Amino acid sequence: MTVFDELQQAIINGQAALAKELTKKGLDSGKKPRDFFPNAIIPAMDEVGRRMRECEFFIPEVLIAARASRAATDLLRPLLVGDEAVQAAGVVVCGTVKGDLHDIGKNIVAMMLESAGFRIVDLGVDVAPEKIVQAVKDENANVVALSALLTTTMVNMKGSIEALKAAGLRDKVKILVGGAPVTDAWANSIGADGYGKDAPAAVELARRLAATA
Amino acid sequence: MNSRERILAHLEGRPVDTLPAMPITMMFAGDRAGIKYGDYATDYRRLVEAQCRVAEEFDFDYVSVISDPGCEAADCGAAVRFYPDQPPAIDEANALLADKTRLARLAAPDPLGGGRMHNRVRGVELLKQRVGGDKLVEGWIEGPAAEGADLRGINALMVDFYDDPAFVRDLFEFVVEMEGRFARAQVEAGADVIGIGDAAASLVGPGFYEEYVWPYEKRLVDQVHTLGAAVRLHICGDTRRILQGMGQLGCEIVDLDFLAPVAEGRAAMGPQQVLLGNIDPVRVLRNGTPDSVYAAIEECHRQAGPRYIVGAGCEVPRDTPPENVRALVRYAREHAA
Predict the structure, then answer these.
(1) A202 and A97 share a domain?
(2) Positions of chain B with pLDDT under 70
(3) Which residues, numbered 97 to 156 in chain A, qualify as contacts with chain B under a Cβ-Cβ cut-off of 8 Å?
(4) Contact assignment for A59 to B158 by CB distance below 8 Å
(5) Do A23 and A116 sit in the same domain of this protein?
(6) What is the pLDDT of residues A40-74, one digit of tens each?
(7) Measured in whole angstroms, how far is the alpha carbon of residue B56 from the centre of its chain?
(8) How far is the alpha carbon of B86 from chain A, nearest alpha carbon, in Å?
(9) In terms of CB atoms within 10 Å, which of A32, A33, B166, B253 comes out highest?
(10) Are A53 and A200 in contact (CB under 8 A)?
(11) CATH number corresponding to B3-333
C-alpha cells in the first residue's frame, strides 16, 4: 500500500492521529501537498459518502472520518498557500438560516465539501441574510449553501436569496439548500439552484454547480 | 365509545368503533388557538387551551403536553434560547456538558421544583381536569439519546460514542434517572400514556443503538410501565436500521417517521405491535390535498394492518391546511381497525 492508500484508509476508519502521522510521513518522503487531495482525501470522503448512503456509516462514523480528514488537511493547507497550481474547487459560504440553531446536518455537509476540495466559510447557525451577503462579497464565494431543520425557519432561505438579489450578487453565486423539511419543489419555488437530500448529494450538487458558476 | 376508551381498547386489542387518530400537534395547535408558540411552550395554561381547542375542532382522540425538547435541559441549567413564536432551542455552542467532568456534579432537577418540567406536569394536571374523561392524556419525556444530546451537544455526543463510551453510559444513566422521575410526576398528575421522544437515536447505527441506547430506552419504558402508564415511542428520522430493537422495547405504541416505511416496521416488529404514522408531514400532509392525505393514510393502514393508529410521521407543520388535517381524521372515523 502506498502512503496515499494508507491515508485514505485511515480517514475512512476515522483514525485522526494516524491520518496526521501518515500525512507527515508522506510529506517527509517528498509527496507534494497538492497531491494528497486527489489521491487520498477526496476519494476517502467520497467513500464515506457512499457508505453513508448505503447505511453502512451513520453520523458518528461520518464525524470521526471528517475529523481524520481535517487532521490531514490542517497540515496541508498552510503548505498550499502560494501554490499556483492549486485551485479550490470553489468557495462555499454556508450556514443554518436565521432563527434556526440546528447544525449537525450543516456541519456534515461543510466537512464533506471541505474534504472535496472546497474552501468553506461556515457562518454557523441563526445566520442573518445580511451576514450571508457580506460573506459572499468578502470571500468572493461562488456557492452559498443554506440549511434549515424547521418548516418555520426554511422560509428564511427565501429571505437570504432575496438579500443576495438586492445586493446584486444573485448571478455571481449558485445557491443550494437542504434540511429535513426542504424539497426540490421548495428549492425551485424560492429560486435556489438545487436541493441536496443528504450530504453526499449536496457535495455532488456543489461540484456540478461550482463548475458552471 | 369516547376517544379515551377507543385508544385504550385498541391498545388492549379489544374491538373499537373507529381507528384512533393521534397526530402530534404543537405549533399547529398554537396557531389555531391564536397563541404565540413562545407562550405555548412556557405557559401550560396556553398549551392546554390550544390542545383542547384542536382536539375538539379536529376530533383528535388525545391531548398532549409535548412542546419542545428543552424542558429538562433548561431545568438542568442548559442555555436555552426562547423565541416569541417558535420553539425554544438549545444553544449547543454553550452546551451544559461541553466539559464532560461537569456530569459528576450535575444534580437532576426536581420535576416539581417550579421550572419548565413543573410547568409540563401542571399541563398534564389541567388537561386531565379539562378533558381527561373523554380524551387520552399524554405526558412527554425525552429518551436517553435525545436528552443526552441536549445536555452534551449533539455533535459532541456523536463522537463520544467512539471516544468515550464510558461517559456515554454515565450520561445515559443520569438521563434515565431524571426522566424516570419526570415520568412519575406526569403519571401522578394524570397522564395515561407517556411519550418518549428519542430523536437522536436514529442518527447512530444499529451497533451503537443496540449496545448503548436500547438498554437505557428499555429501562425507561419498564419504569413507565411500573407506574401503570402506557408508552408511545417516537424516534424522528430514518429508523429503518433500528426497527427491530424499537419493537422489542415493549412499548404500547411505536411511531414511525416517514422515512421508515410502515411495511418495514410491521415486518420488523411483528403483527401485534401498534404502529402510528407515518405520512410525510411536509410533502404529503402540508403540501398535499385532502384526497392525497386520505389516500396516503389508507396506504399506511394497508401496510400496518389492524394494529394501527392514524397520524403523520412527525409533528403536523404549523401552516398545514386544516382541511388536510380533517381528511386525516376522516380516514380514522371511516375505518374500524
Answers:
(1) yes
(2) none
(3) 99-104, 107, 124-125, 150-153
(4) yes
(5) no
(6) 999 999 999 999 999 999 999 999 999 999 999 99
(7) 21
(8) 7
(9) B253
(10) yes
(11) 3.20.20.210
